[in-house]
Fold this protein.
Amino acid sequence: MNTTPGIRENEVRKWLDPRVDGVEGVIKYQQIIGGHSNLTFTVADESGRKWVLRRPPLGHVLATAHDMAREYRVIKALEGSGVPVPKAIGLCEDTAINDAPFYVMDFVDGIVVRDAEIAATQPLEVRQKMGNSLLETLVSLHSVDVEEIGLGDLARKDGYIERQLKRWKAQFEQSTNREISGVFEVHDNLLKNIPEQQGVGIVHGDYRLDNTIMTETGEVAAVLDWELCTLGDVLSDLAAIIAYSNNLTGMETQAMSIEGFPTPSEVHALYDGLSERDLSKLDFYVSFAYWRLACILEGVYTRYAAGVMGSEADTEAIEIFGERVLLLIDLANSTFQDFLQRKEDD
């Protein structure tokens, strides 16, 4: 009898058993809360061994929306690359086993710093180490030769920013129900000024502190959540970290907003010191990162304001969320103006 929604326990056990040299005793499943759309479960047997299982959400989803094979392929390819990822155990695309494709990887023990409250429990020197390791790992990811590890055909290699602008503009138009000044103006300005892409690298697509597992001493033990991973302009990943490290009003809940983690200028300097990429046009990418985050959060705000997310947030918290979207648009616009100014000065 299945007791875990999303897991056909007997069938999954039979599939897993030969891939881990035999499962011992009863398997316990526990859903890990805090991810995005895909469902993540810890899988533990009585010997104390633990794994992680990832599968799409319950119910109908678009075939391409939650591509388990793609995530698995990326993690498998990165093993031994210098980028810390969990060891891939196996991919199951036979939906007769668990109603949907899934994959299993090793469980990596450590700390997931989801917000400022958790970050504040870490000593200052550990937070500093976490920030450094986060940037070092990102540079390592961006230096991976995609052809050498077999990911050269993972996605289109050009036009990344242009495609992102189109995608998130459409997402914003579909999700908002209010007039927000500047959203489309920033979009149009960005579209007309896309810098030439510097080579092709792996873009994580959602690289930030809470999508990693950290050791107690502040090293990245594993990078998680590869569902948005693609090929393209890697400076978008760097810009996203800068957006998440901003401690301005309305961003206080972000883990990297508290003391010890690098400020936006320090993030820039850390990456610049480790990478050979030209960061002279980074303000463009930071403007894009603020704008993209605003589009994402507007969708979340609209759902909360409409009450479709249940009673998890009170009215005041919902309004603060809505104001954060406006703040991000202002930041996107002012950062774009900085980009134009530097362009003129050069």
